[in-house]
């Protein structure tokens, strides 16, 4: 998205995704390692297909699909983190979820605003 997006807001959102998700991923990897949990080394097949489909697009077509994917993924992730916040028993995992959830909600709000502005 940082290279293929045509919309400046989409590019800025992509920059934020790289920064925030890299930080959260690094924290999660360290937490998993401390708990002897093995995380997947690669993205799942569905995510890879989305990524491949996006790679074939550019400009407005890219922007539209990227924003749609980000909306859907962030809604699902916020829901999953809200559920985890209520139900996790491990205090360290719960602390990670509770620390990360506000950022995810901010991402969802940002992509919703971008989507509304594109219509």
Low-pLDDT sequence parts: none
Radius of gyration: 15 Å
Structural class: mainly alpha
Order of helices and strands: HHHH
Query: Tally of extended strands?
Result: 0
Distance between the termini: 19 Å
Output mean pLDDT.
94
Tally of contiguous helical segments? 4
What can you tell me about this protein's structure?
The chain is an all-alpha fold and 119 residues long. It is 80% helix and 0% strand. The protein is globular and about 45 Å long. The two termini are 19 Å apart.
Short description:
By secondary structure, the chain is mainly alpha-helical.
Could you give the topology of this structure?
Elements: H1 8-34, H2 45-55, H3 59-87, H4 91-118
Structural features:
119 residues
């Amino acid at each position: 998205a940082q290279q293929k997006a045509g919309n400046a807001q989409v590019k800025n959102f992509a920059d934020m995704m790289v920064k925030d998700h890299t930080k959260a991923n690094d924290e999660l990897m360290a937490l998993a390692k401390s708990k002897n949990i093995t995380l997947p080394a690669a993205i799942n097949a569905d995510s890879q297909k989305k990524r491949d489909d996006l790679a074939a697009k550019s400009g407005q077509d890219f922007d539209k699909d990227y924003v749609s994917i980000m909306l859907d993924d962030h809604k699902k992730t916020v829901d999953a983190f809200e559920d985890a916040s209520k139900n996790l028993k491990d205090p360290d995992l719960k602390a990670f979820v509770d620390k990360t959830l506000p950022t995810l909600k901010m991402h969802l709000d940002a992509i919703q605003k971008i989507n509304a502005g594109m219509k």
